[in-house]
Amino acid sequence: MRKFFTGLAITASLLGASITAQAGPVLDDIVKSGELKVCFDAGYMPFEMKSKAGQFIGFDIDMSKLLAKQMGVKYVPVNTAWDGIIPTLLTGKCHMINGGMTINTQRNMRVNFADPYIVIGQSILLNPKLKGKINDYKDLNDPQYTITTKLGTTGEQAVKRLLSKAKINVFETQSDAVLEVTNGKADAFIYDLPFNAIYFAQNKDKIVHLDKPFTFEPLGWAVAQGDPEMLNVLNNFLRQIKGEGTYDRLYAKWFESDAWLDQVQ
After folding, report:
1. Which domain-ending residue is among 195, 210, 225?
2. I need a surface site. Which of 44, 71, 82, 244 has the fewest CB within 10 A?
3. pTM for the complete prediction?
4. For the CA atoms of the chain, what is the radius of gyration?
Protein backbone atom coordinates (compact mmCIF):
# COMPACT_ATOMS: atom_id res chain seq x y z
CA MET A 1 0.00 0.00 0.00
CA ARG A 2 1.33 3.44 -0.87
CA LYS A 3 2.72 5.60 1.91
CA PHE A 4 0.60 8.74 1.89
CA PHE A 5 2.98 10.54 4.27
CA THR A 6 5.59 11.03 1.56
CA GLY A 7 6.54 14.69 1.47
CA LEU A 8 5.23 15.51 4.94
CA ALA A 9 7.56 16.76 7.65
CA ILE A 10 6.58 13.84 9.89
CA THR A 11 7.37 11.06 7.42
CA ALA A 12 10.57 9.91 9.06
CA SER A 13 9.04 9.79 12.55
CA LEU A 14 6.17 7.58 11.45
CA LEU A 15 8.60 5.19 9.84
CA GLY A 16 10.46 4.76 13.11
CA ALA A 17 12.96 7.61 13.23
CA SER A 18 12.87 10.34 15.88
CA ILE A 19 9.99 12.79 15.85
CA THR A 20 10.73 16.07 14.11
CA ALA A 21 10.22 19.47 15.68
CA GLN A 22 7.50 20.19 13.13
CA ALA A 23 5.13 17.47 14.34
CA GLY A 24 2.29 18.57 16.60
CA PRO A 25 1.42 17.17 20.04
CA VAL A 26 -1.11 14.60 18.82
CA LEU A 27 1.21 13.08 16.23
CA ASP A 28 4.05 13.21 18.72
CA ASP A 29 2.06 11.17 21.24
CA ILE A 30 0.89 8.68 18.58
CA VAL A 31 4.47 8.01 17.53
CA LYS A 32 5.85 7.80 21.06
CA SER A 33 3.08 5.50 22.28
CA GLY A 34 2.86 3.44 19.11
CA GLU A 35 -0.93 3.69 19.37
CA LEU A 36 -3.77 5.53 17.67
CA LYS A 37 -6.56 5.94 20.23
CA VAL A 38 -9.91 6.63 18.56
CA CYS A 39 -13.07 7.73 20.39
CA PHE A 40 -16.59 6.68 19.34
CA ASP A 41 -19.92 5.68 20.86
CA ALA A 42 -20.75 2.12 19.77
CA GLY A 43 -24.34 1.57 18.70
CA TYR A 44 -24.59 3.88 15.70
CA MET A 45 -25.27 1.57 12.76
CA PRO A 46 -23.44 1.08 10.47
CA PHE A 47 -20.67 3.40 11.67
CA GLU A 48 -19.65 1.77 14.96
CA MET A 49 -21.23 -1.25 16.63
CA LYS A 50 -20.35 -4.06 18.98
CA SER A 51 -20.65 -7.50 17.44
CA LYS A 52 -22.05 -10.59 19.12
CA ALA A 53 -18.45 -11.72 19.49
CA GLY A 54 -17.65 -8.59 21.49
CA GLN A 55 -15.67 -6.87 18.73
CA PHE A 56 -16.15 -3.32 17.50
CA ILE A 57 -17.14 -3.24 13.84
CA GLY A 58 -18.44 -0.70 11.34
CA PHE A 59 -17.60 1.84 8.65
CA ASP A 60 -15.77 4.18 11.04
CA ILE A 61 -13.98 1.29 12.73
CA ASP A 62 -12.63 0.00 9.42
CA MET A 63 -11.36 3.44 8.44
CA SER A 64 -9.68 3.97 11.81
CA LYS A 65 -7.97 0.59 11.58
CA LEU A 66 -6.76 1.43 8.09
CA LEU A 67 -5.43 4.80 9.25
CA ALA A 68 -3.55 3.15 12.13
CA LYS A 69 -2.11 0.56 9.75
CA GLN A 70 -0.83 3.22 7.39
CA MET A 71 0.64 5.12 10.33
CA GLY A 72 2.41 1.96 11.43
CA VAL A 73 0.84 1.99 14.90
CA LYS A 74 -1.67 -0.06 16.88
CA TYR A 75 -5.36 0.82 16.66
CA VAL A 76 -6.91 1.29 20.12
CA PRO A 77 -10.72 1.72 20.32
CA VAL A 78 -12.03 4.08 23.01
CA ASN A 79 -15.76 3.50 23.40
CA THR A 80 -17.35 6.29 25.40
CA ALA A 81 -20.75 7.85 26.06
CA TRP A 82 -21.69 10.43 23.42
CA ASP A 83 -22.31 13.29 25.84
CA GLY A 84 -18.75 12.94 27.14
CA ILE A 85 -16.94 12.23 23.89
CA ILE A 86 -15.49 15.73 23.34
CA PRO A 87 -14.22 16.02 26.93
CA THR A 88 -12.64 12.59 26.51
CA LEU A 89 -10.77 13.90 23.47
CA LEU A 90 -9.77 17.17 25.10
CA THR A 91 -8.38 15.44 28.20
CA GLY A 92 -6.07 13.36 26.02
CA LYS A 93 -7.76 10.00 26.52
CA CYS A 94 -7.98 9.59 22.76
CA HIS A 95 -6.21 11.16 19.78
CA MET A 96 -9.26 11.72 17.57
CA ILE A 97 -13.01 11.23 17.34
CA ASN A 98 -14.19 9.04 14.49
CA GLY A 99 -17.75 8.39 15.51
CA GLY A 100 -20.23 9.83 13.04
CA MET A 101 -19.87 13.36 14.42
CA THR A 102 -21.63 16.10 12.49
CA ILE A 103 -19.57 19.22 11.87
CA ASN A 104 -21.27 22.28 13.32
CA THR A 105 -20.20 25.66 14.65
CA GLN A 106 -20.79 24.88 18.31
CA ARG A 107 -18.57 21.80 18.20
CA ASN A 108 -16.04 23.54 15.98
CA MET A 109 -15.49 26.09 18.75
CA ARG A 110 -14.12 23.27 20.90
CA VAL A 111 -12.43 20.96 18.39
CA ASN A 112 -10.98 21.07 14.89
CA PHE A 113 -12.50 18.99 12.10
CA ALA A 114 -10.84 17.36 9.12
CA ASP A 115 -12.62 17.56 5.76
CA PRO A 116 -16.04 15.80 5.75
CA TYR A 117 -15.79 12.09 5.00
CA ILE A 118 -19.53 11.59 4.39
CA VAL A 119 -22.68 13.74 4.26
CA ILE A 120 -25.96 12.61 5.83
CA GLY A 121 -29.10 14.25 7.27
CA GLN A 122 -32.01 13.71 9.64
CA SER A 123 -34.95 11.53 8.60
CA ILE A 124 -38.15 10.41 10.32
CA LEU A 125 -39.33 7.03 11.60
CA LEU A 126 -43.06 7.32 12.01
CA ASN A 127 -45.77 5.49 13.90
CA PRO A 128 -47.77 3.57 11.22
CA LYS A 129 -51.03 5.16 12.39
CA LEU A 130 -49.76 8.47 10.98
CA LYS A 131 -48.91 7.13 7.52
CA GLY A 132 -50.39 9.48 4.93
CA LYS A 133 -51.17 12.09 7.56
CA ILE A 134 -47.55 13.08 8.19
CA ASN A 135 -45.62 13.60 4.96
CA ASP A 136 -43.00 16.13 6.00
CA TYR A 137 -41.16 17.15 9.16
CA LYS A 138 -43.20 20.37 9.25
CA ASP A 139 -46.36 18.32 9.75
CA LEU A 140 -45.00 17.18 13.13
CA ASN A 141 -44.64 20.71 14.49
CA ASP A 142 -47.78 20.44 16.57
CA PRO A 143 -48.42 20.00 20.34
CA GLN A 144 -50.42 16.83 19.68
CA TYR A 145 -47.30 14.94 18.57
CA THR A 146 -44.55 13.41 20.68
CA ILE A 147 -41.12 13.16 19.08
CA THR A 148 -38.16 11.21 20.40
CA THR A 149 -34.46 11.48 19.64
CA LYS A 150 -31.05 10.85 21.20
CA LEU A 151 -29.56 13.21 23.77
CA GLY A 152 -26.72 15.45 22.63
CA THR A 153 -27.09 14.80 18.91
CA THR A 154 -27.88 16.92 15.88
CA GLY A 155 -31.21 15.12 15.88
CA GLU A 156 -32.02 16.76 19.21
CA GLN A 157 -30.85 20.12 17.86
CA ALA A 158 -32.98 19.76 14.73
CA VAL A 159 -36.09 18.84 16.70
CA LYS A 160 -35.71 21.74 19.13
CA ARG A 161 -34.97 24.20 16.33
CA LEU A 162 -37.55 23.13 13.77
CA LEU A 163 -40.27 21.38 15.78
CA SER A 164 -40.49 23.47 18.92
CA LYS A 165 -44.28 23.15 19.17
CA ALA A 166 -44.19 19.36 19.50
CA LYS A 167 -43.55 17.45 22.72
CA ILE A 168 -39.93 16.29 22.75
CA ASN A 169 -38.51 13.33 24.70
CA VAL A 170 -34.76 12.71 24.59
CA PHE A 171 -33.06 9.44 25.53
CA GLU A 172 -29.52 8.34 26.33
CA THR A 173 -29.48 5.90 23.39
CA GLN A 174 -31.05 5.88 19.96
CA SER A 175 -32.32 2.35 20.61
CA ASP A 176 -34.40 3.47 23.59
CA ALA A 177 -35.68 6.48 21.68
CA VAL A 178 -36.87 4.58 18.61
CA LEU A 179 -38.50 1.87 20.74
CA GLU A 180 -40.93 4.50 22.02
CA VAL A 181 -42.29 4.74 18.47
CA THR A 182 -42.35 1.02 17.69
CA ASN A 183 -44.09 0.41 21.03
CA GLY A 184 -46.69 3.08 20.29
CA LYS A 185 -45.60 5.47 23.05
CA ALA A 186 -44.44 8.23 20.68
CA ASP A 187 -45.39 9.47 17.22
CA ALA A 188 -42.02 9.92 15.55
CA PHE A 189 -38.29 9.32 16.00
CA ILE A 190 -35.88 11.75 14.36
CA TYR A 191 -32.29 10.68 13.84
CA ASP A 192 -29.56 10.19 11.24
CA LEU A 193 -30.63 8.67 7.92
CA PRO A 194 -28.22 5.67 7.89
CA PHE A 195 -29.44 4.39 11.26
CA ASN A 196 -33.08 4.98 10.36
CA ALA A 197 -32.77 3.21 7.01
CA ILE A 198 -31.27 0.11 8.61
CA TYR A 199 -33.79 0.11 11.47
CA PHE A 200 -36.65 0.39 9.00
CA ALA A 201 -35.29 -2.52 6.95
CA GLN A 202 -35.49 -4.66 10.08
CA ASN A 203 -38.88 -3.41 11.30
CA LYS A 204 -41.00 -2.67 8.21
CA ASP A 205 -44.13 -4.05 9.84
CA LYS A 206 -43.80 -1.76 12.87
CA ILE A 207 -42.74 1.59 11.48
CA VAL A 208 -42.81 3.96 8.48
CA HIS A 209 -39.70 5.70 7.16
CA LEU A 210 -39.88 9.19 5.65
CA ASP A 211 -36.48 8.81 4.08
CA LYS A 212 -35.89 12.21 2.52
CA PRO A 213 -33.37 14.01 4.80
CA PHE A 214 -34.50 17.44 5.93
CA THR A 215 -31.09 18.61 7.18
CA PHE A 216 -27.62 18.79 5.62
CA GLU A 217 -25.01 17.23 7.89
CA PRO A 218 -21.39 16.63 6.93
CA LEU A 219 -19.59 14.21 9.25
CA GLY A 220 -15.95 14.78 10.11
CA TRP A 221 -13.06 13.46 12.18
CA ALA A 222 -12.38 15.68 15.19
CA VAL A 223 -9.05 16.45 16.87
CA ALA A 224 -7.99 18.82 19.62
CA GLN A 225 -7.37 22.39 18.55
CA GLY A 226 -3.84 23.55 17.85
CA ASP A 227 -2.53 20.61 15.80
CA PRO A 228 -2.71 21.39 12.06
CA GLU A 229 -0.24 18.59 11.34
CA MET A 230 -2.75 15.96 12.48
CA LEU A 231 -5.44 17.55 10.32
CA ASN A 232 -3.03 17.45 7.38
CA VAL A 233 -2.48 13.74 7.87
CA LEU A 234 -6.23 13.03 8.12
CA ASN A 235 -7.10 15.07 5.03
CA ASN A 236 -4.36 13.43 2.98
CA PHE A 237 -5.46 10.00 4.19
CA LEU A 238 -9.04 10.72 3.12
CA ARG A 239 -7.93 11.92 -0.32
CA GLN A 240 -5.81 8.81 -0.75
CA ILE A 241 -8.46 6.23 0.14
CA LYS A 242 -11.02 8.00 -2.03
CA GLY A 243 -8.64 8.26 -4.95
CA GLU A 244 -7.54 4.63 -4.91
CA GLY A 245 -11.05 3.19 -4.41
CA THR A 246 -10.67 1.93 -0.84
CA TYR A 247 -13.32 4.34 0.45
CA ASP A 248 -15.85 3.12 -2.13
CA ARG A 249 -15.22 -0.50 -1.15
CA LEU A 250 -15.78 0.26 2.53
CA TYR A 251 -18.89 2.28 1.72
CA ALA A 252 -20.33 -0.60 -0.31
CA LYS A 253 -19.55 -3.04 2.50
CA TRP A 254 -21.42 -1.08 5.17
CA PHE A 255 -24.06 0.96 3.32
CA GLU A 256 -24.95 -1.06 0.22
CA SER A 257 -24.96 -4.51 1.82
CA ASP A 258 -26.64 -5.89 4.94
CA ALA A 259 -24.41 -8.95 5.20
CA TRP A 260 -22.91 -7.55 8.40
CA LEU A 261 -26.25 -7.51 10.23
CA ASP A 262 -25.83 -11.12 11.28
CA GLN A 263 -22.79 -10.07 13.30
CA VAL A 264 -24.75 -7.70 15.52
CA GLN A 265 -28.07 -9.50 15.91
Report:
1. 210
2. 244
3. 0.75
4. 20
